[in-house]
């Protein structure tokens, strides 16, 4: 069975390009923005912001420390879209596969 969750948020303090650029090139800074939730975001393979790069995430959900090893499966700069696929970690105990897609649209912020 395939499950899908979608969420939409309006950007009030950043342009769509800056928001997309943060998630493409500076996701390691999540540990500074959300220190209670993200402990480590470490580049393991490849180049930051490039197709095929692999990162290790140490994060906390409801007080429980977790890890995930994820790969950038697709990048579409024209559509401001990033696709991440979990390769290993705690999330793989709950799901056979896990994919996250970030789409940033100009509809909310310019």
From TrEMBL:
Domain of life, source organism: Eukaryota
InterPro entries the record matches: Bet_v_I/MLP, MLP-like, START-like_dom_sf
GO biological process: defense response
Residue ranges of domain Bet v I/Major latex protein in the record: 1-110
Organism for this UniProt entry: Olea europaea subsp. europaea
Family listed: Belongs to the MLP family.
Pfam family, one: Bet_v_1
Name of the protein in question: MLP 34
Lineage: Eukaryota, Viridiplantae, Streptophyta, Embryophyta, Tracheophyta
